[in-house]
Amino acid sequence: TALVLAVQILGLSAVIIVAVWMGHFRGGFAWQSDPAKEFNFHPVFMVIGMIFLYSDGILAYRVFRNMKKLYIKILHGMIHLGALIFSAVGLKAVFDSHNLAKNPIPNMYSLHSWMGIITVVLFGLQWLSGLTSFLFPGLSMGLKKQYMPHHVFWGIAILTMAGATALMGITEKALFMMKTFPENGSKIPVLDYSHKPPEGILMNCLGIVIVTL
Amino acid sequence: TALVLAVQILGLSAVIIVAVWMGHFRGGFAWQSDPAKEFNFHPVFMVIGMIFLYSDGILAYRVFRNMKKLYIKILHGMIHLGALIFSAVGLKAVFDSHNLAKNPIPNMYSLHSWMGIITVVLFGLQWLSGLTSFLFPGLSMGLKKQYMPHHVFWGIAILTMAGATALMGITEKALFMMKTFPENGSKIPVLDYSHKPPEGILMNCLGIVIVTL
Ligand code: HEM
Ligand code: HEM
Ligand code: HEM
Ligand code: HEM
Ligand SMILES: O=C1O[C@@H]([C@@H](O)CO)C(O)=C1O
User: Fold this and answer.
1) Nearby residues of A197 by Cβ (< 8 Å), 6 or more positions away
2) Which pTM does this prediction carry?
3) Using CA positions, which residue lies closest to atom 39 of ligand 4?
């Protein structure tokens, strides 16, 4: 449908925009050899994992309507597993960028980091409970039916939290960048190119909510 | 119900915590005579308007179940009008704090401010369309029925946007405060007391979504 397409386009744009932001404007990428550039992997991997793959995983049931239910389940679960893996790498990247810096930066001090950890942990739990409830044969049909609305509700709630976390992350990064600006004599921060990702993310969330309502 | 009570308690705590944060830790309040202190009204008024009154307005239909429908409508509309008024004053306070500062600060550069304006404008439109559709006698019953699900969907979507905007605002304020910290020799920002409002806000949103689902 048109909404599924819209979510794809917005999600992909968000990924491309963060990648360009970090890769082009923020100096590109490196792993542990250069912690400051390792940081740049964080936004990119988090957006791929917690926004793009996350939404796509949810949409699997809408897109492949005529596939066998079991196959869609596996696809849905695998995409969310992918989301979890990207997120884990993205988190490793920030923590490294703090710990391996010449002047190490404290961890977990910000609202962004608190919300972020809660979001990823809840996502992990959601994944585990989805897996045990719907893919393993153990559970009775009645229990599955009871859990289903909670699975859907939390799936959307955690996506909203991920969106809000990403917006806070972008705000933080923008303000950290602003810090060096007074030295250049200018007060207006370079936010021109940072305004699109959140738009994408926001509309993405909105799109998903609309689709799933 | 328990959820309504929970939302009340969380909403009130959020208001009290921001008020204490601004009033006690950030130096208190003033109007145009002291733009820096005038800023402090911004978070307080925005949280009262866009979080507390907003949620309470929505809950009116749940709380006063046995009241006459017309009265609840008026109450619901009035609370949301109150939310709009508090928000307008809160916005006046930030703009003043930027424009009247000795070194004026540019307006509308941040993601927070963009999302914030969009949120308040959408809220205003929602209010107007609610008023014209449900309180004036003109519209046919069929059109009202058609508009209702959109009214509810957007009501919740805009509340979520308000929550995300507030979280970004808190993040900004926290980082602006952090800026002065290296001079004190410490790198860890004073976020200890700032961690509660977003929790309140977040859970508020969640609570509302749960209630209204
Ligand atoms: C939903 C996606 C995201 C999650 C779950 C997340 C999570 C986290 C976590 C847990 C930390 C703490 C790392 C530490 O303390 O060592 C962190 C730090 C950081 N993140 Fe993110 N992040 C996300 C998206 C983003 C995005 C999109 C950006 C920016 C474009 C960003 C910018 C930052 C910055 C600047 C820091 C360092 C400052 C701080 O600790 O708050 N994040 N993130
Ligand atoms: C953190 C990971 C997960 C998230 C965020 C998530 C989220 C969601 C959401 C939002 C829906 C509603 C889709 C819609 O209404 O179109 C859904 C449906 C569903 N999910 Fe998950 N899910 C996750 C993991 C899993 C896993 C691992 C399984 C097990 C294979 C699973 C099984 C299902 C099933 C069976 C449905 C019902 C589809 C239907 O019949 O409409 N989920 N999930
Ligand atoms: C949903 C509620 C909120 C809305 C709609 C909102 C809206 C806005 C707007 C439109 C501006 C731009 C003013 C200008 O450019 O002159 C602004 C600035 C600001 N707000 Fe908020 N705000 C909200 C909540 C908060 C909260 C809770 C805080 C902090 C605790 C906060 C902190 C700030 C700060 C630090 C600025 C100045 C920096 C900037 O322009 O981004 N805001 N807000
Ligand atoms: C920006 C302001 C407004 C917002 C955010 C808003 C939001 C909402 C929400 C979320 C609901 C669903 C409540 C529930 O499911 O328990 C609702 C219901 C409703 N609203 Fe509004 N509303 C606003 C203004 C108005 C105005 C001005 C009127 C006109 C008097 C109005 C009339 C109604 C009616 C008739 C219902 C249906 C209640 C029912 O029968 O369940 N709304 N509103
Ligand atoms: O905590 C951090 O502060 C900034 C700053 O060090 C440079 O932007 C950054 O990137 C972090 O990860």
Assistant:
1) A14, A17, A18, A21, A47, A166, A170
2) 0.88
3) B61
